[in-house]
Amino acid sequence: MNKLVRQGFKPVDSHFKEDGQRWTVKEKIFLGLSPGDYFREQLKNPFNWILWVIYLVGTPILIARFFYGLGWATHSSYDYPWGLFLSWGLFTMVPLSASGFMMGTTVELFGRKDFKPIERLGLLNGLLGYFFAVVFLEVDLGQPWRLIYPMFVSLGPAAVLFLVAWHVATYLSVQIAELVPSFSEWMGFPRAKSFIKSLSIGLTVAGIILSTLHQGALGALFTYAPGKLHPLWLSAEFQWIHFLCSAIFAGLSMIIVVSTLSKWFMSWRCDDEFLSTLDKLTLGISKGAVLALITYLVIKIIAVAHDNEWGYLLTGWGQYYIVELLFGTIVPMILFTFAIRRQTASIARLAAFVAVFGIVLNRMNTALVAFNWKLYQEIPHWREIIIAIMVYATYIVVYRAILARMPILYTWNDKTK
Amino acid sequence: MKKFDRRKFLKGSLAGGVAAAASVGHEAKAAHTFEGYPDSMGVLVDLTKCIGCRTCEAACNKEQGLPAPDKPFDDMSVFDEHRHGGLKRRTSEKAYTVVNRYDIPEQGEPVYRKFQCNHCNEPACLTSCFVNAYTKTKEGAVMYNPKVCVGCRTCMIACPFYVPAYSYSSPINPIIKKCIMCYDTRLKFGKAPACVEACPQEVMTFGKRKDLIKMGHEKIKFKPEDYVDHIYGEHEVGGTAWMYLSKVPFEKVGFDTHLGTQPVLSYVKDFLAIVPMVLCIWPALFTGFHLLATRKEARKTEQQKSEE
Which one, A115, A399, B39, B111, has least CB within 10 Å? Predict the structure, then answer.
């Protein structure tokens, strides 16, 4: 696509063609290309070939999981009820999707309109991350068709997971509402957009409340297992705030990562405003991330002090814990600081990649590696890994498809002929 | 005359108020802990009497209509089995109770330990369930309702004793499988669970939990050389219906002795307490932030209006 655009092709960015005729929805879906040209264009992209391989291998395994059961597809056991689907799909995807509420807060609540070019990307990243966390959950649940039971059939309101279920469901609708403007621009329904605009502060505040609580609740879920999770990864009092605080820099770093990937691979879709302000905005977001990182580091250390767990730091587990903090928190913190002082966006991008890696490390350690530390370590089944890769690939496909069409990376051209 | 220092007075009254609030809070918190139903039943297991005959396992299998075991119940080679991680046998979807053998060098003969759901006073599985599938009956059994279970398996994460098993092999109707203290066939009618009744060695005593605690302490007092001075389950994780007496230290026969006396719920309460506060405080707080952050724009629009 980048090449096509360089040759002078202009993908759909308004309701009207050059000659003043209206684009049909079908034409919009094909970005203004003929279907034949569109598919030829898709075939040229080597990444699509990788996707094909993933789907060819993954689809039968995913279908078979529902016919042969979880025992066939995963290493979930009596001792390890939760495996890769939740540790990756829920516990890692959700903090990385905190970007929605972070950008909503920055732009709508704090009135930093200068972050507007990147706001919608943050919102979309949030919506898709949550949606696919639910998809992962559906793959993992024993009886996925009962997903609505905690909502309507049999309620257990005193459970932390009840809060997670309700909040993720409500927050998904909030995020859909927040993205209605992009969709309505693309489809040409201006009324929907102005209606949502009138609600934006309410939606943003709802987003902050729901995010505070369910990000925290994901951490609090582990307080149910004080005897099973290694004490260094569990702080009964502070677990929720550890998860919330790390979700802040996770979400911010994730916006930097996806905006960087968009700039690298989808620059044809980015408008000049996005591309020209991106470096500045990246550094602005870095400031937020570095504040969250230093706070996180300090409250992690406070937790060790609070429970007097210094002795554990000298054990093998403790050294692994230090490695996690070092590479997942301290290194990105230093890199971000360096980037801000030097005003170099590329270093900030590197820092964001490291910070995202740090979050993955922390959540996987909490949910899988340091869980049952007194028993044995569980390695996920190969089928579990393939299913997880396939669901994640679907996330990327949907993400890319929306970015290519709706006005996320570019501003919709409102010209009336 | 010394002038009355208003600031000092405020400080003093504030400190007093905090102290009063703290003391009230303390009592209130203590009142939160649930001691269990007054007349709930329990079982006291005397490990010193167990000979590892596995009769209880067979009785449980029959009573609960469980599938035939891989090895017959008179096959003692199961005691040498090790599963993943070199661990001894555990409860599963096919066995709600298991007996394990522990060879202790200082002890001449091996010690056997029966193991099943301990039926906690304040069960972690129950408190963690988001569809309310678990109930603690007044008789003391922790029951599970498979009809509402979604299969999230948080109860298995929460159980400090690693008791609940899950029928992972079933694609259509996987459910939690665990001991229900023979509630619907026996306990409800005041009868002892099948395993208790079947035991030829009278290892287990069925009775009111509070009586069993008394009895246990009397046993220890009467024969201090035969027992460790502790009833496992009297206070562990808030107390359990099934309790144990042992001659050897409990950690040597597969008990987790680091669980503490608080029910698992008490570790979760810190978070649960902030939920209503966030729900109530955040709206005003963040709307306030919004007003503060956008005050310049607000002033500008006001000026524009007045100019008009």
Answer: B39
Indicate the CATH number of B41-263 among 3.30.365.10, 3.30.70.20, 3.30.450.40, 3.90.226.10.
3.30.70.20
Q: Which pLDDT tens digit goes with each residue over B111-155?
A: 999 999 999 999 999 999 999 999 999 999 999 999 999 999 999
Q: Interhelix angle for A46-68 vs A382-405, to 10°?
A: 130
The structure tokens listed for A87 are: 């540790």
* A70 has a chain B CB within 8 A of its CB: yes
What is the extent of the structural domain holding A264? 45-405
Contact list, A141 vs chain B (CB under 8 Å): 150-152
* Torsion angle defined by CA atoms of residues B164, B169, B170 and B174, in that order, rounded to the nearest 10 degrees: 20
CB contact under 8 A, A205 and B150: no
The reply to whether residue A227 touches residue B293, judged by beta carbons under 8 angstroms, is no
Task: Give which of B178, B203, B207 is closest to B190, Cα–Cα.
Answer: B207
Q: How many residues does chain A have?
A: 417
Structural domain spans, chain B: 41-263, 269-296
Contact A216 B274 (CB under 8 A): yes
Is ipTM strictly over 0.90?
no
Give B34-67 pLDDT, tens digit per residue. 677 888 999 999 999 999 999 999 999 999 999 9
Entry pTM: 0.89
Q: How far apart are CA A278 and CA A264, in angstroms?
A: 12
What's the CA gap between B185 and B190, in Å, rounded? 10
Shortest distance between the Cα of A187 and any Cα of chain B, in A, equals 31
